[in-house]
Design the sequence.
């Protein structure tokens, strides 16, 4: 730049003072360092205002990135030459350049060679349809450049600067589509060695941009950006302000309509060049009606080093819909209904961090009915440091699936990425309680979280449970001691047995495992044994037809997918040595016959229609479910088929034979649903 000023001053300096009205000078070729000029023609003219100057040249070769200028014509109407000062108060210059095309500029020049001080002002510098005003000042080895334009077409500007960029930068720009107009005011200060300060004010209107992958998109964006940066030794001190108040933006996966909720950012800090470290000493992010963040942090290429971030009191529903939900797609929390307020504090030093979240009267509901919690308040904390922090939450109620949960509270301590209860946690479930005596939760660095607890399930009436789950009305209670429940690798395991008192007998559930309990396709595995069920109570509950006696059973290798059976080995039979009275009604005979695939209605066409019930020696039915097919059998083989009921005892006696060996599981379910409307049995 300094060489350009010297060249300009050389052009306007006279070599002699004469009384003639004009002096002409011609030079075939002249060069200085990286400057070369050919066929220079210049003349000094006496005008009414004093001395005028004209010059032209076929070409002027300057250092890159300007390069070669052609057909140069310069005119100064008011050339002033006084002691140690040369100036042109009004001048024009015409030239052609490959990228810039034809340029007709107005300029003012002021030069003080003895003080090594130069100033030039240029108007109407044209870049496509944009006109720039540029001022450059050089004093010794210090320089300043000021440039502004009221209308800069971004697409044209990117096209113009592309030849001056590195290959990698040009390739990156090709992946972007950019359109829009900005108002630009740019100040750059420097010296012979480096840029020392930058000031930028940019106002954009209707900016549309997108990358080739569709991860970053804006439409009709209006924004104002202000940036100031000053170099202090080897580091940069900076401050920035950004305001976006119109248009829409998408940064995968977040979408914001700025016309409804404007976004502003103010920040200042340092860029430590040798350490490649960014220090943000003060930051305020305001997303209108959504949230306000403020704090400070420092980071390098490896991530955060120190941080202190405060989230002001915000509405849970609005914060979730814009800033959280897009990141949760495919998880158990991607479809929540929320209400209440939230605030948060995060701080980090080196690799140790602490997060505290405050909730006020929050309501959370997974809209497919997976879970809900009502009037949740208190603080939720987490840390990987060895200094403990406390969590204290309380709520008025909630649910898991269809199970109602009552009012409860929890007190816990978090230290080194592990949470432990400070006191037993009692959670009301329907008309019973789940008591957790010991509970620990560990978060592993690879995000493989685990938890376990021991506790006790106080009696829950099966009547309330069956009504809640939409089952036929069951009797008895669900209760038991829970030795250990653990969760690891997205799987819940129960070590020990749950005992259910049903139908005056007992049901014991062992080896219970639940995979992906909060996923879209939960899987359950278990082994179940039933002992001493009262058939009269059982059949009355399901309106199956009256059967008296006892029933034992086993359901081994039970597997449910999305709560639907896909595999099990089930056997139900009269227990050996049963001393109870064993009778079966006509309706139950018909229903069992229909389940086994036999004919119905025979009893109504025989003399046995006069008997209300019949005695039997034993009954039983088994099903092995694999690949949606049930392999069926009974308590013994018959000549044709298998016995479901084998007659015995005092007359009248009856046998019920099943004929279907293989039946599609959906068909069997339809039979079970329709048994109360079926009739008939095979009588021998």
Sequence:
């Amino acid at each position: 730049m300094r060489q350009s000023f010297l060249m300009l001053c050389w052009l306007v300096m006279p070599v002699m003072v004469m009384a003639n009205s004009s002096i002409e000078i011609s030079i075939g070729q002249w060069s200085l360092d990286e400057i070369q000029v050919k066929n220079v023609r210049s003349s000094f003219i006496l005008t009414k205002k004093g001395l005028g100057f004209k010059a032209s040249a076929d070409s002027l070769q300057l250092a890159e990135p300007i390069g070669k200028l052609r057909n140069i014509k310069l005119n100064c109407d008011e050339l002033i030459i006084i002691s140690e000062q040369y100036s042109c108060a009004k001048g024009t210059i015409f030239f052609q350049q490959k990228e810039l095309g034809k340029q007709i500029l107005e300029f003012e020049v002021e030069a003080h060679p003895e003080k090594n001080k130069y100033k030039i002002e240029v108007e109407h510098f044209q870049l496509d349809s944009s006109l720039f005003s540029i001022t450059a000042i050089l004093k010794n080895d210090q320089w300043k450049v000021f440039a502004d334009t009221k209308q800069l077409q971004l697409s044209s500007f990117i096209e113009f600067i592309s030849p001056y960029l590195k290959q990698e930068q040009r390739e990156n720009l090709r992946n972007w589509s950019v359109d829009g107009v900005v108002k630009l005011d740019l100040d750059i200060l420097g010296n012979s060695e480096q840029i020392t300060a930058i000031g930028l004010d940019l106002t954009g209107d209707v900016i549309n941009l997108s990358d080739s992958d569709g991860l970053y998109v804006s439409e009709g964006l209006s924004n104002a950006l202000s940036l100031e940066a000053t170099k202090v030794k080897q580091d940069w001190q900076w401050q920035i302000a950004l305001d976006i108040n119109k248009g829409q933006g998408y940064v995968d996966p977040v979408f914001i309509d700025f016309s409804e909720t404007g976004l502003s950012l103010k920040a200042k800090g340092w860029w430590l060049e040798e350490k490649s470290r960014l220090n943000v000493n003060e930051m305020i992010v305001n997303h209108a009606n959504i949230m306000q963040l403020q704090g400070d942090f420092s980071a390098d290429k490896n991530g955060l080093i120190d941080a202190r971030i405060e989230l002001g009191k915000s509405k849970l529903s609005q914060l979730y819909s814009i800033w959280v939900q897009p990141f949760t797609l495919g998880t158990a929390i991607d479809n929540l209904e929320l209400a209440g307020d939230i605030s948060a504090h995060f701080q980090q030093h080196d690799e140790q961090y602490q997060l505290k979240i405050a909730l006020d009267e929050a309501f959370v509901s997974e809209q497919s009915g997976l879970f809900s919690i009502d009037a949740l308040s208190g603080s939720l904390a987490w840390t990987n440091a060895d200094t403990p922090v406390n969590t204290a939450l309380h709520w008025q109620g909630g649910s898991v699936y269809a199970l109602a949960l009552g009012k409860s509270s929890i007190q816990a301590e978090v230290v080194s990425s592990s949470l432990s209860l400070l006191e037993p946690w009692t959670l009301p479930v329907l008309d019973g309680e789940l008591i957790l005596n010991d509970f620990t939760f560990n978060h592993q660095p690879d995000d493989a979280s685990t938890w376990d607890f021991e506790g006790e399930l106080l009696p829950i009436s099966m009547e309330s449970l069956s009504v809640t789950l939409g089952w036929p009305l069951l009797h008895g209670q669900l209760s038991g001691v829970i030795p250990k429940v653990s969760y690891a690798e997205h799987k819940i395991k129960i070590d020990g047995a749950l005992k259910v008192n049903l139908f005056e007998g007992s049901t014991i559930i062992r080896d219970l495992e639940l995979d992906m309990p909060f996923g879209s396709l939960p899987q359950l595995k278990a082994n179940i044994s039933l002992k001493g069920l009262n058939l009269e109570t059982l059949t009355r509950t399901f309106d199956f037809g009256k059967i008296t006696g006892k029933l034992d059973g086993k359901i081994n290798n039970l597997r449910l997918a999305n709560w639907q059976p896909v595999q099990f080995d089930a056997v139900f039979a009269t227990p050996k040595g049963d001393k109870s009275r064993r009778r079966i009604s006509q309706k139950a005979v018909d229903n069992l016959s229909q389940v086994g695939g036999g004919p119905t209605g025979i009893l109504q066409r025989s003399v046995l229609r006069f008997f209300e019930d019949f005695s039997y020696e034993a009954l039983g039915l088994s099903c092995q479910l694999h690949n949606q097919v049930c392999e069926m059998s009974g308590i013994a083989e018959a000549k044709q088929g298998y016995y479901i009921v084998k007659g015995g005892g005092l007359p009248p006696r009856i046998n019920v034979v099943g004929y279907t060996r293989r039946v599609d599981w959906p068909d069997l379910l339809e039979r079970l649903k329709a048994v109360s409307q079926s009739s008939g049995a095979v009588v021998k």
Observations:
- The chain is about 10% helix and 60% strand.
- The longest helix spans residues 2-12.
- Residues 503-677 form one domain.
